[in-house]
Design a protein that fits this description.
This protein is an alpha+beta fold. It has one domain (40-260). The protein has 4 helices and 15 strands. It has helices at residues 2-25, 40-48, 52-61, 233-236, and strands spanning 70-77, 82-99, 102-107, 110-115, 122-126, 130-137, 140-149, 158-164, 170-171, 194-195, 198-202, 212-216, 228-230, 243-251, 254-260. Strands 5-4-3-2-1-15-14 form a 7-stranded antiparallel β-sheet, with no helix packed on it. The chain has a 4-stranded antiparallel β-sheet with strand order 6-7-8-9, with no helix packed on it. A 4-stranded antiparallel β-sheet has the order 10-11-12-13, with no helix packed on it. The longest helix is centred in the N-terminal third of the chain and has 24 residues, at 2-25. The protein starts with a helix and ends with a strand.
Length: 261
Amino acid sequence: MTNKAVIPIVVCTFLLGGALAISQTQKKEPPPPPPKKETTSAWICRVLRVDPKTYVKLVGVRQGQEQIGGDHLALADLQAHTETQVADCGECWSPAVVDSQTIAFLKTDGVWVRPLQGGDAHLAVKARSLRVLAGPAEGRTSAWVVLQHQAGGAGCDYRLVVADLASGQLDLETEPPQCLGEEDIGGVLRAGVLRGNKVLYNSPPGQGFRRILLGELTAGGDSAGTERVPLLPWIEVLADGIDRFDAVWVDDNHVVYAQKQ
């Protein structure tokens, strides 16, 4: 009788242990932590393909970047010391070089595109409240990152969108940051201001007519080590009273920018 009583106990213990082992293996693993949210600066560097170290240097020394509208677009030849008006744009700002033959710029009704020399401008992307045409998204010449003002709560006055010049749509497939405050927009870099270690700046406000300044990024990249000089000294001596601003590089010897007469 004693042996017969022990056998069921042993069997039950074995079965119970097996059930516990199975239940433990069936326990769900804890979910992985959510991916770390990408910062605005990281998104800008990734999408505009800007070296993060260079980005830090640029946003650390930029000044005089508040929005101002021009009435003409102009092209300057830095070797020949000439200036040519490209277009009467009415009111425009933030020009950008799409390719060697084409420029884009912002107006109150959206993104406009025109040949750099000759030809007519056309509205490529219809949109309101666009502030800065930053640069091509991930190397696509038809898709451009744009800063757009939006009606939102405190700290969400702006968002980054991607304007597709080919389709005419505001494309959100790259998931740009949707909530930027006034304190963030200084970090929305216009990629066309940089060529090598040379950077184009607007002169600070309150110093007479607006000028385009040329600076060079030092190894340290701090503002104290970045000397800025007039980009167009042969024009400035004319004292013609024309504001020149929002310049971007076309190539090593040419820049395009906005004028306000």
